[in-house]
Amino acid sequence: MRGQVSATDFAAGFLIFMIAVFAFFNYSQISTQGERDIDLVRLSEELLTSGYPADWNETNVLRIGLLSNDSIDTDKWMTLRGFDIDTKNTMLSTPYYYRISVHPSDLGIITNYNDTATLGYDTSDTVRRIERIVAYNGTIARLEVIAWH
Amino acid sequence: MALGQLFTIDALIATGILLGTIILITSIGTDHGSQNEQILAHDLIRALSAIPVSESTAPLIAELRGNGTVEPLQMERSILEYTSELWANGNLTLAERIITNVSEHVSNMSGFSTLINEEALYTNAAAQPRTISRTTRLVSGINKSQPVRGYSARMQFSASSNRTTSTFAYFGGFSGQGDVEVVLRDLPSDIEASRVVSFSMEAAISQDVEVTVNTVSCGTFTAQPAYKESQYFDLSPCISALTPGNNRVRLSFDELETAFVGGGFVRVRYTTDRITIPPVGHGTYHFPDIYGIINIYDSFTVPGNLTSLEINLEYDALLPQNITTTYFLTIGNTTVYNGTNISSESITLTDADLSMLDYSAMSGTNPIRMGLEGVNYTGYITVDRPSDTTLVTDVSGSMSVCGDTEPPLTCTYGCQYMWWIWPLTTTKTCTVGSVDACTGDVCGGSPTCVNTYNHDACRSRMRVAIEAAKTAAAGILQSDLARVGTVSYSTGVRSVLDLTDNLAAVEDEIDSYTAGGWTCICCGIYRAFDMYTNLSANHSYMIVLSDGDSTHDCTGPGDYSGTHAAENIANQATIDAGQYACANNISVFTIAIGDDLTPTGIDTLRHTACDESMFFASDDFSDLAGFYETVTQEILSRTTYTSQIVHPGEGMASNLTNSYISFTYDPIAQPAGINEVPITVQTPTFDHCTDDFLLGSNLRVVDAHVTSYSDEHWTSLVGINAHTVFNISRYSDDYTLIGDPFIVGLPADRFVNGSNTIALLTGNEPGNETGCSVNNSIVINAAVAINPTVSIVTPKAEGCHWFVMQEDLNIYEISIPAHYNGTKECYYETATYDDQDAYDRAAYELFRQLDVTNTGRIDIYLREQELSVEVAITQDVPSLWGPSEYVVEVTR
Predict the structure, then answer these.
(1) Quick one: which of B170, B317, B384, B664 could link to B654 by a disulfide (CB 3.0–4.6 Å)?
(2) Which stretch of DSSP H or E encloses residue B309?
(3) Residue B340 CB: number of other CB atoms within 10 A?
């Protein structure tokens, strides 16, 4: 009698334990993805500022931002694009690979990886993407930021 | 068993709660779409705000720019602002097309729509019913169906450049004797003939005079014969002689003995671009230059606490060997300089030389007397001025009774005589020399009295009045320029004699008076009033006599017949008639005589006179002659000019030139400062001894003075708001030793915002006041805090010609803006203006600031020549409507 009761309890306890383990791993994955998404928003938000100083250039930049008068500033874009990878990573403070582009535009793409890393972009299952609306060249364009690792 | 089951169920419930929590957390953590859409709404509204119309590359906007649909001022609007304006103007279709065009590259990102004040502007093809996020931006200056831009006018009063202003040179109370020269000082550098508005002189002169300006003759001007009241002279013939800086105006007379100016000034009005800032804390009184015999009565005013004084005198003399002459200068009653028998002198007196003066007592107006001792003063000269006087005499029935027992008396008694054998009676009346003489059959003649009785010797009230009136008429007509008219009244007007200088005619008319009827005092006053045809030029007087209460009413001026009325109505009609005459510059004296008058009747006559000093009352008819005599003397004193002049003597001359009194003081009031506009307020002229005037609440008095044409008398007492500011008796009982101010300073700190009362008296000696001078006026330099007014945004700005009623009922006219030449008329009093016109709105608000009593009439007397309206208009000013809500919604 006592043994039967103990077996039922054990079964229930085990079930609860397994649910907890499942929930932990599941939440752990959600959290990682959420952190990445949140970082992507942060990255895009940072890009959609004027930076500091507002008229920053490659010699005085403290914080990156691509806008002037709330529109994409071509000079800032080209300056960021011309930074080496270390500088880009330092300035944008992100551990992920990313590529940034504006559509339509002829501004080209800003990335922080070598061409060989495009393989990862193509194949990684961690790729995340955000699109922002931004003024550029007298019209309303899309700013696309893609990040992965 | 039961315990075991319970445990298992508990575990399952706990598991369910745990799972639910995990699912909830997961759900929240993975709703990334909502966050992105919120970002999209924010991004879109920012982008719409960031792109100026001028820089938009959207084909449609380029087309709108090209075809002129986009106005130049809209070029710098953002897409958001431009589409908002289109919405306000009702052009939703174009607004929608523009947003469609500019957002074509992002329209597939999500469903979204834009709205203004919840009215949809645009919805894209991907829009879904469910709104996920919503971002709002406030847009100011727009409202549905309201103008987005327009005009705004900003207005303020200012002392304008190119303003019209005046420069004065004063003659003082008495400047003589000989040629008199005053200086118009510091005319601006841009003065020229074309900028002179007027050039004139107002002065009391005793003989014809030639006026020269900087040695250029303006002509010879004729003095009114034997007439010393101020006259106006037009000096425009020598406007071209005026130059920048100082200008000398000289009055040249032929007869030295009457060569003087008894008060007045020279005035030049001109436009100038130069701004003159008057000195603060420093003043200078300039003596008139005298070329003849120095004889000056004047004053200078210290508008604060005197701190230092300097006197500079330059004079010379040509004196016969046997003449010993002393020049003297007296300030107040203190002689500050004596120079004996000096042929030529230039002296300067400083504080050290003037220790005899009490500076602390010299704040305000200080009389100045400068002249010569040892010369022959001829005493007073008396000359006449025109005057009209009417004698309004009661001839009602009550005037038939006994008045007094002054001879000649009328002796009346009963007489019994015999006709055949029958005794009959009759009444005999004749004139006797005394009461005692009225006895027996003193009148004699037929019939012969066998018995006389009831003797009564007296002079009727009528006769008393007749004699007194005749005496008064004779006294007044001593003056060559006086006229007298008569009105007798009882139930209505009984008889009239128009104004005449024929004494015999007046006496005949008065002698014809007989008593009978009721008493209509107002009838007599109104009829007498209609005799005056030249009220402004002549001194006008009316002497009203009554021995009884008024019994009749008048409907108003022109009603001489009267209507029997209740006592209170008849009394009020009497007062109204008298005050009507007073208001029209007639000095009304009233005499209440006899014991038939009730206290109310006496009071009525008291209030019928122009002021209480002009009312006389007694129950004794024997006082009547004295009353008439007093009034006659008063009239005579007002209509003659007396002054102290010197007889120059053979070969005698003394000249005074370039002399002045310079002083420094701690000012009572500071001049207009920041945010204050300096203005000059001049009250209407007043002829009475007191006058009330209003000062607005936003007005601060800087300095002020009252002009007093004391003429033959001295300005003896001036008070403001019950505070005496000048009292000549403080200096001496002998006014001839004291200067006579033409201008009396009024301390700024004695004025109040609101009602003020000025009192001004003239006199010849203490206790012998001569009433008040005429044509007095108060000039106040003030600082007015007037805030600029700014109109709301209106669709137009055209302007208007404004008519602004002032408190004195004069109309101030001004075109705003100054270049407005249209036909539109605006009236402040009735608030008649175009409220869609920026100019009109700002102007109305500006005038409202001057209407401190909110009567529709401005309380500050504006004179266009001293104040300008500074106007600034701004076009295409965004309206202040809204704000409106510009919303972007993202849907899913």
Answers:
(1) B317
(2) strand B304-318
(3) 11
For residue B570, the one-letter residue type is A
Residue A140: which of B26, B30, B105 has the nearest Cβ? B105
- Residue whose entry in the numeric block shows the structure tokens 């000195």: B279
A27 to chain B: which residues are within 8 Å by CB? 22, 25-26
Q: Enumerate chain A positions whose Cβ falls within 8 A of a Cβ in B.
A: 1, 5, 8-9, 12-13, 15-16, 19-20, 23, 26-27, 30-31, 34, 37, 41, 44, 48, 69-71, 103-104, 130-135, 137-142
Of the listed ranges B161-175, B323-337, B567-581, the one predicted with least confidence: B161-175
Tell me how far apart the alpha carbons of residues B590 and B603 are, in angstroms, rounded to a whole number.
11
Which pair of tokens denotes residue B16?
A: 């369910």
Which one of A5, A49, A139, A142 makes the best mutation probe of the B interface by having the most chain B beta carbons within 10 Å? A139
Q: State pTM to two decimals.
A: 0.47
Of B10, B69, B160, B174, which Cα lies nearest the Cα of B715? B174
Supply the ipTM of this predicted assembly.
Answer: 0.79
* Nearest by CB: A132 against B12, B22, B39: B39
Q: Which residues of B471-500 are buried (b: 16+ CB within 10 A; e: fewer)?
A: bbbebbbebebbbbbbbbbbbbbbbbbebb
**What burial class does residue A90 get, using C-beta atoms within 10 Å of its C-beta: 0-12 exposed, 13-18 middle, 19+ buried?**
exposed
* Measured distance CA(B205)–CA(B225) in Å, rounded: 10
Give the DSSP H or E segment for B12: helix B2-29
Quickly tell me which residue has 């036909």 as its tokens: B823
- Picking from B358, B378, B374, the residue whose alpha carbon sits closest to that of residue B366 is B358
Q: What is the DSSP letter of A63?
A: B
Residues in chain A: 149
Record: contact A8-B8, CB cut-off 8 A:
yes
pLDDT in tens, B221-257: 888 754 446 688 999 999 999 999 999 999 988 877 6
Place of tokens 């009525």: B604
pLDDT in tens, B589-628: 999 999 888 999 999 999 999 888 889 998 888 888 888 9
Q: Closest Cα to residue B263, out of B229, B289, B221? A: B229
> Residue B147 and residue B425: Cα distance in Å, rounded?
106
Write the residue in B26, B46, B58 that is nearest to A30 by C-beta: B26
Q: How confident is the model at residue B486 (pLDDT cuts 50, 70, 90)?
A: very high
List, as one string, the DSSP characters of B116-175.
ETTEEEEE-TT--SSEEEEEEEEETT--TTS-SEEEEEEEEEE--TTEEEEEEEE--SEE
Closest of B369, B323, B364 to residue B343, by C-alpha: B323
**Distance set, CA B145 to CA B86, B149, B718 (Å):** 10, 12, 64
- Other CB atoms within 10 Å distance of the CB of residue B206: 26
pLDDT in tens, B638-686: 655 444 455 454 455 567 778 899 999 998 888 777 667 666 666 777 7
- How far apart, in Å, are the Cα atoms of B731 and each of B500, B727, B736, B765? 43, 8, 11, 12
